[in-house]
Amino acid sequence: MQTNDGQIIKPYSIAAGLDYPGIGPLLAFLIKSGRAKAVHVTDSEALKAAFELTRLEGIIPALETAHALACLGKIKFHRNDILVINLSGRGDKDLATYMKNIENESYL
């Protein structure tokens, strides 16, 4: 997240809320202390998860939430686990991004 001289490297994600580099030190602390776990999710995986939720439930998630949904397939759950998902944000503000990517038939 930094160059050799300590400058912040500009991150990129289609989800504007995930591009904020200033949160890096807090996340690093939480992960190192064992209070959080990081899961890598690509923009493509997030879009696929968003289209799946929209197709199955009629809910258009915000792109940030779509990244959280995409990580569900990467986490091992036990049979009796209870999963609560907070679908924060509004997907309607991200419709232009969704429409730009809908032509990729692998999302449908």
Write up this protein:
There is one protein chain. The protein has 108 residues and is mainly alpha-helical. The chain has one domain (16-107): Rossmann fold, CATH 3.40.50.1100. The chain is 37% helix and 0% strand. The protein contains four helices and no strands. α2 (43-57) crosses α3 (63-71). The longest helix has 15 residues, at 43-57.
The general outline is globular
Count of strand segments: 0
Q: Per CATH, which architecture?
A: 3-Layer(aba) Sandwich
Helicity level: 25-40%
Concise overview:
The chain has helices at residues 24-32, 43-57, 63-71, 95-101. It is mainly α and 108 residues long.
Descriptive keywords:
single chain, 108 residues, mainly alpha, Rossmann fold, 0% strand, globular
Task: Describe how the helices and strands are arranged.
Blueprint: H1 24-32, H2 43-57, H3 63-71, H4 95-101
